[in-house]
Structure to design on (371 residues):
């Protein structure tokens, strides 16, 4: 079976021969991969900055944004059947009895750090023809979402960010209480930093949650991403022509900043213009090594205290978040089908994986297809 793998010891990336998996337990499901998305994390792993092969292997099969179709189920599987579309979750729990999050099915909050992540950390990923996994880690996707369901995993980043936001803002019990039917965020403003897939999907999620939403990103307007963002009613503002202070002037009180760029400099510049009672959500993972960034820490600290601000980081996603992503992707497809489809800018055969992973990043979301 073919697979796309990285070998950090030999510093190689490419298509390899990989063993075909078999069902060995009654709770397991076999599925054939349909598509796998490529993201910044995959590209970092291919620069040997991040990620690790499973114990006993020199290589790691890449891929954590998967979509597959079930081909076989173990005798104990109750929720999935042959032909179902599935999106697999990424993280697998650690084994420590003391790790309460992992024991509670929330390995995205693992306390030991000994979790594994498919295609990233010590567990082979989805860039291969067939996969076997446990039923509990698979999310069934409605057939009408088949052509965009590969976007589910990146959307979970925004969904978990929103979930964290709702938890934090329970402190503002009176918030947006007048017209709740307009969405929990309808009386607030959100700025999404970055117009990659995580940013654009985030902008859609914030818009659906009712926020007046803005995307702040580098490229000058008009450009394909600004046009895409504005096609679903979100204002795009370029950091080339508008400073963070000017952005804050335009927007008014910035209630939420959702960071989706993975670089500290612009993120901390924006943190300085976060509004009263605001929440800053970090989702990006800066690569290393990077030059140190100078920030006005006194100003940030003063603002955080005097304006009741919260900065929160969020990584990975549990089942509830995947379920929320399935629901929201369905809503996006009802409201903005062309914009959602336009996020997938390239579908490629396995043979092109190497250049996609190592070459200059192009388009919005590139996908490998196995059909
Ligand atoms: C993945 C997450 C993962 C994180 C850190 C991201 O690209 O989407 O599932 O937890 O990388 O490894």
């Amino acid at each position: 079976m073919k697979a796309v793998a990285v070998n950090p010891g030999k510093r190689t990336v490419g298509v390899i021969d990989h063993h075909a998996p078999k069902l060995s337990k009654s709770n397991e499901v076999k599925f054939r991969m349909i598509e796998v998305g490529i993201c910044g994390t995959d590209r970092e792993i291919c620069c040997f900055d991040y990620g690790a092969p499973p114990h006993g292997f020199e290589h790691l099969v890449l891929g954590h944004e998967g979509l597959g179709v079930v081909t076989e189920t173990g005798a104990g599987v109750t929720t999935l059947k042959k032909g179902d579309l599935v999106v697999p979750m990424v993280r697998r729990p650690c084994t420590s009895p003391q790790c309460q999050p992992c024991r509670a099915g929330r390995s995205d909050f693992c306390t030991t750090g000994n979790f594994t992540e498919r295609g990233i950390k010590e567990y082979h990923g989805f860039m291969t023809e067939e996969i076997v996994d446990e039923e509990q880690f698979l999310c069934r996707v409605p057939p009408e979402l088949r052509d965009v369901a590969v976007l589910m995993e990146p959307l979970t980043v925004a969904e978990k960010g929103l979930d964290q936001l709702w938890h934090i803002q329970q402190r503002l019990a009176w918030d947006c209480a007048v017209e709740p039917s307009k969405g929990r965020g309808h009386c607030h403003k959100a700025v999404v930093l970055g117009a990659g897939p995580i940013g654009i999907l985030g902008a859609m999620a914030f818009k659906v949650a009712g926020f007046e939403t803005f995307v702040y990103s580098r490229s000058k307007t008009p450009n394909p991403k600004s046009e895409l963002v504005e096609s679903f009613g979100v204002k795009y503002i370029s950091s080339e022509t508008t400073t963070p202070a000017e952005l804050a002037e335009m927007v008014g009180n910035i209630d939420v900043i959702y960071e989706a760029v993975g670089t500290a400099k612009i993120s901390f510049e924006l943190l300085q213009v976060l509004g009263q009672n605001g929440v800053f959500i970090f989702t990006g993972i800066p690569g290393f090594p990077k030059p140190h960034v100078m920030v006005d820490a006194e100003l940030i600290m003063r603002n955080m205290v005097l304006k009741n601000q919260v900065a929160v980081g969020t990584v990975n996603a549990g089942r509830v978040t995947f379920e929320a992503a399935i629901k929201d992707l369905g809503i996006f497809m009802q409201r903005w089908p062309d914009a959602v489809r336009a996020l997938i800018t390239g579908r490629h055969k396995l043979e092109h994986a190497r250049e996609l992973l190592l070459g200059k990043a192009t388009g919005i979301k590139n996908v490998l297809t196995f059909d």
User: Anything to note?
Assistant: The mean pLDDT is 96. The longest helix spans residues 152-168.
